[in-house]
Amino acid sequence: MAMKSFSVFFFVLLLASPILQVARCQSEAEADVAEAVEGGELGIVGEEAQDFGSGNFDSAPGVETLCLFPKNSAKLVSAGEETELLVGVENVGESPVNVIAITASVHLPFDHRMLVQNLSAQAFNNASVPPSKQATFPYIFAVSKYLQPGTFDLVGNIFYEIDQHPYQSTFYNGTIEVAEAGGFLSVESVFLVTLGIALLVLFGLWLHGQFQRISKKTKRAPKVEVGTRTTDTSLDEWLQGTAYTQSASKSKKKK
Ligand SMILES: *[C@@H]1O[C@H](CO)[C@@H](O)[C@H](O)[C@H]1NC(C)=O
Ligand SMILES: *[C@@H]1O[C@H](CO)[C@@H](O)[C@H](O)[C@H]1NC(C)=O
Ligand SMILES: *[C@@H]1O[C@H](CO)[C@@H](O)[C@H](O)[C@H]1NC(C)=O
Questions:
Q1: Residue ranges per domain, the chain?
Q2: Atom of ligand 3 nearest to the CA of 112
Q3: Which of 8, 138, 207, 252 has the highest Cβ tally under 10 A?
Q4: Buried b (16+ CB within 10 A) or exposed e, 81-109
Q5: Ligand 3: which atom is nearest the Cα of residue 55?
Q6: How far is the CA of 41 from the centre of ligand 2 (A)?
Q7: How does pLDDT run across 67-118, given as a tens digit for each residue?
Q8: 126 lines ligand 2 (CB under 6 A)
């Protein structure tokens, strides 16, 4: 009974982590990205197509951006491996917005002037967002595989033109968690597995204690009932002087 409820509890614990994560991502995705780009209008040209000036442009007032890490609410990035994020662009202005490219860079969180890495640029060709429409642009990046695991700041910029005038917006300026290459263990799952193991050990100890109690009881029971010394002489030897022998001799005296 206890065993059964325990194992159910344990499996629920193990299963809960990924389910919770998926649920969180879905709600995030549903809330933020209502419409994606209508089929194939994005002309993805390739990486490093041009060198985009380093933060010289203003952002246009009629453009709103948001950033989403699909299926990765922890913003966990494996060093050296590709990670995808989605940049949502909403055109609340009156002219079409021509998205040109997305770039990003990695900085030290405690000092933004310390640039760790320039990430590759993703260029788009004739990716136009008409007025009062929104579109989502993918950006795939990989931080250096030599980056130490830890927290870094990612600054993502999107470059676009409105009426041939260049602008840029920062769509993300926040932290990412860099994990060691190939390390897929999140902090959460490590915690849950550790908790599970600890619970298992505790349960094992408890079970051990229960067994000892039960075996003591069963050893005592026949002896008290029979009340003779013909059996268990060996048992008596190592029980000499314990509470058990004392109580046994007491009951004998009563007879
Ligand atoms: C990153 O890019 C900026 C601007 O493009 C440049 O000034 C800087 O030297 C680059 N840094 C590294 C480490 O590549
Ligand atoms: C972009 O594509 C539209 C049609 O999808 C076309 O009318 C327009 O001329 C193109 N613009 C450029 C700069 O290629
Ligand atoms: C990003 O945020 C940091 C502080 O949180 C700030 O110093 C930095 O200027 C910001 N960068 C951009 C491009 O907005």
A1: 63-180, 184-213
A2: 7
A3: 138
A4: eebebbbbbbbebeeebbbbbbbbbbbee
A5: 13
A6: 10
A7: 999 988 889 998 989 999 999 999 999 999 999 999 999 999 999 889 999 9
A8: yes
